[in-house]
Amino acid sequence: MYDLVIRNANIVDGTGLPAFSGDLAINNGKIAAVGDVKTKGKKEIDAQGKLLTPGWVDVHSHMDGQATWDPLCSPAANHGITTLIMGNCGIGFAPCEPNADAQGRLITVVEDVEDIPGAALHEGVKWDWETFPEYLDAVEKFPRAIDVGAQVPHCAVRTYVMGERGAKNEIATPADVSAMAAIVKEGIESGAIGFTTSRTELHTTGGDQAMPGTYADEAELLGIGKVIGELGGKGIFGLVSDFHNWEQEMDWMKRLSVDNNCQINFVLFFREEADWDRVLKQLDYCRQANAEGAQLIPHVGARPVNILLSWDGTINPFSFHANYGPLSVMSHEDRLAELQKPEVRAAIVAEDLPLMGDSFMDTIIGGYDKLYPLGNPPNYEPAPEDSIAAKAAEAGVSPQEFCYDLMMQDSGKTVVYFPCFGYGANDLSRQVELLEDSSTVISLADTGAHCGVLCDASIPTQMLSYYVRDRERGHRLKLEDVVKMQTFDTARCVGLEDRGTLEVGMKADLNLIDFETLQLESPQIIYDLPAGGRRMFQGASGYIATIVNGEIIMENGKHTGAVPGALIRGAQPAPKAA
């Protein structure tokens, strides 16, 4: 008798092969049979033609703090994510000297760069570690519903070794590099998936100071990366970069990869349409380099880089208006009461736009042709005629008035959508082209980060409900391809060969989905982090059950209380053939 049998499902198994009707059996946390299962189960689910897929594998999260206090890594589990990888962008909490100054320094980086409330981190992170192996031990001890894997973050390593010199991005000495390399080697040997660094000037701390490691030279990067070669190619090197000198950057990446049998996962990021030619050239470079023995894997997003603007969030179009300033520090209830007063509304919308001369900030303040009602269900592919400027013109009011009244809907919880980078084509055609490229991997959900302005952990749900089922502004993606993108492809790009497909012997991580009703919910700010910290939360409907290691952790959007998840220690081999 099997532990669990799911019958009569529409199975999309993650391999890319066509969907088929059948049953699936689970025993001892593994898939025991797929197809026509005759043997009974201790528990059985009649799926009645509902969609059965592997669990989603999220390879770009920032759950390094939240994973130590939240068993669900919410909202990951709400969107069918059964495995997530943290420690991206060189950001994390280990190693760290066991004192308040060092701990506070890392919290400040995470708060400033990833918009995770510092108060929540100060209260939630217990600091039961100094070294990276000790951090993994602490993560492993905490009961959790989903699996998590960690990477060694450059920022923490650099400040641990170099102190203020590291924080100020001074050039590392050979002794510094040797010490950092030893820490990374120890981390990978103890179970880290790999090492990550950030080379983008978007990642700044207080006073617009670039985060530690941003300007590391080749000697430092290659000196750290060589430990992967010393370990026989065990471990992955990950990075995000602005690619100002992309050919020079890709050259050292290629050399590092070839010389050390090292896979490099890098964020293929673009801001403007003018960057698109560079993106295509980088894809060609990767294809050529990989044919010559490199392992360069571009990671791409399914949405433009975006910001959700709201009264309760980090920023909104009225944040810099003089008459709004006193309201910004109020509680939600008190602020809403003030915003509802006609005289307050009149004073705020009548102000001249407080433009700053910065194109990014000025778009938030007054670029209403680039700001959109997100809607319900949310629309992440708005057309120019959907903009607040266009809607205001139709209504015969100013854009400020329209935006103000829009944000006041749903008790002041409605958000405004600003696709700030990568939406120059005014549709998702660039994202689709990147997703369909055979050399790329879907990534960049930033799960757990940018709490006041973002909730891209919901991307897996959008991939099915929108890209496969509902999209009208371009061609739709094939269901089997989208499932493979988020399961097999993502699992393999971080060395996990024990999950991502519904095949006998694989981990029993699954999603049972009502595909016809699957839908994103509207995002809104909630206050459930430690110390009452805020975050943008977006739920979903249509997930009937999410299963991890053979146990149902979510049923119809609710946690069952099960905590079968685990810490992943390093690459995981495929199950041995029976």
What does it look like?
It is a single chain. A hairpin with an 8-residue loop joins strand 1 (2-11) and strand 2. It contains 18 helices and 28 strands. The strands form seven sheets. Strands 1, 2, 3, 4, 5, 20, 25, 26 and 27 form a nine-stranded mixed β-sheet that branches. It is of the alpha/beta class. The two termini are 19 Å apart. The mean pLDDT is 96.
How is the biggest beta sheet arranged?
9 strands, mixed
Strand count? 28
Radius of gyration: 24 Å
Oligomer: single chain
How confident is the prediction overall: mean pLDDT? 96
Shape: globular
Low-confidence stretches: none
Assess the beta-strand content as a share of residues: 15-25%
Structural class: alpha/beta
Topology, pairings included?
Elements: E1 2-11, E2 20-27, E3 30-35, E4 41-46, E5 51-54, E6 56-58, E7 81-85, H1 100-114, H2 118-124, H3 132-141, E8 147-149, E9 152-153, H4 154-162, H5 164-167, H6 174-190, E10 194-199, E11 204-205, E12 209-210, H7 218-230, E13 236-241, H8 246-260, E14 263-267, H9 276-291, E15 295-300, E16 305-309, H10 332-339, H11 342-350, H12 359-366, E17 372-373, H13 388-395, H14 399-407, H15 409-412, E18 416-421, H16 429-436, E19 441-442, H17 459-470, H18 479-493, E20 510-513, E21 519-520, E22 524-529, E23 533-537, E24 540-541, E25 543-548, E26 551-555, E27 558-559, E28 567-568
Parallel strand pairs: 1-4, 1-5, 6-7, 7-8, 8-28, 9-10, 10-13, 13-14, 14-15, 15-19
Antiparallel strand pairs: 1-2, 2-3, 5-20, 11-12, 16-18, 17-18, 20-25, 21-24, 22-23, 25-26, 26-27
Helix pairs in contact: 4-6, 6-7, 7-8, 8-9, 13-14, 17-18
